[in-house]
Amino acid sequence: MPSAARHTPRFASTLAQSDAALAAGLPRLRDCVRWVTSEFHLAGLYYGHGTDSAWDEAVALTLGALHLPWDVDPAVLDATLLPVERARIVALARKRITRREPLAYLLGEAFFAGLAFNVDERVLIPRSPIAELIEDGFSAFFGDEPPARVLDLCTGSGCIGIATAQYLPTCEVTLTDLSREALAVAKENITRHDVGDRVRAVEADVFDGLAGQRFELIVANPPYVDAWDLATMPAEFRHEPALALGAGRDGLDIVRRMLREARGYLTDDGWLIVEVGNSDRHLEAAFPDVPFMWLEFERGGQGVFALSAAELDARAASFA
């Protein structure tokens, strides 16, 4: 995890004014976006939950506060806002700055693979580069025959498995998580996307509770943050559930178990795809003889590997 940027602002924040006074001076949407951007710059916030700059975060906040889509006509920037709308934007910006709370939690919604998902502090905020694989239908691994059964381990909000079901309308998906609170959010998202006929949520500790089941694809974004990153991460990440972040000294406690047990739940032509983020270096050091296929992404991201069922068979002794 990168550290939050620090700087000494040359100008004073306007947040000392009352919300009412601030809102009165921001008549148009354009004014609100500009003001929020300035305040975010002054506050030295960290962006790592779907945006990467003060401007992008300000746009996301203002559009989200007004329930407007990301692809709204830019002409709306010149719209004059109602007092209640301006007040909502100012209040959200103040919370974002003073609490260092991720914007997705303040809005109750995050986007993943082009789809909207309910999120709150019971689950991680969706941001995995695995979204690109989903949008491409995992075609690099399955070609013209998409996987019939998919397992999304450590599902959290359910975003990976539910998005997979949306992009692959013939597949059946099982979502698992150890956290009942996370599964409650995942079930909300199953309902939101109307995929309950093909997606089910199961309480399970990794593979526990799945005996006898086989999947063509097992995909996971498990806890993988190592002890150092967990101790030094920016304040925004501390709002996320610790259970979904840390996984031991090197971040691989759960991934090691996945590598040991996954083959028993894969079909013979199946694939295991797992995100380990910054702990990729620990994984290669722990298993130097394993030919992990490290995936590349057009929109950025690192630390996602793929292993076939055949490779898991061949390296079973390494994972024992």
Architecture overview:
The chain has 320 residues and is of the alpha/beta class. The chain folds into 2 domains: 19-107, no CATH class; 109-319, Vaccinia Virus protein VP39 (Rossmann fold). 37% of the residues lie in helices and 15% in strands. It has 14 helices and 9 strands. It has helices spanning 19-24, 29-43, 54-65, 83-99, 103-107, 130-135, 139-142, 159-167, 180-192, 227-232, 253-261, 280-286, 309-314, 316-319, and strands spanning 109-112, 115-118, 149-153, 172-177, 199-203, 215-220, 266-275, 293-294, 304-308. The strands form 2 sheets. The protein has a 7-stranded mixed beta sheet with strand order 5-4-3-6-7-9-8. Helix 3 (54-65) crosses helix 4 (83-99). The longest helix is centred in the N-terminal third of the chain and has 17 residues, at 83-99. The protein is elongated and about 65 Å long. It starts with 18 loop residues before the first helix and ends with a helix.
Quaternary structure classification: single chain
The biggest beta sheet, please? 7 strands, mixed
CATH architecture descriptor text of the largest domain: 3-Layer(aba) Sandwich
Count up the domains.
Answer: 2
Identify the CATH class of the largest domain.
Alpha Beta
Return the CATH topology of the largest domain: Rossmann fold
Q: How many DSSP H or I helices?
A: 14
Q: Assign an overall shape.
A: elongated
For CATH, the homologous superfamily of the largest domain is named as Vaccinia Virus protein VP39
Structural classification: alpha/beta
Q: What is the end-to-end distance?
A: 29 Å
Could you report the average pLDDT, rounded to the nearest whole number?
Answer: 93
* Number of beta-strand segments: 9
* Low-pLDDT windows of residues: 1-8
> What is the strand content?
5-15%
Q: What percent of the residues sit in helical stretches (DSSP H or I)?
A: 25-40%
Question: Order of SSEs, N→C?
Answer: HHHHHEEHHEHEHEEHHEHEEHH
Arrangement of strands in the largest sheet: 5-4-3-6-7-9-8
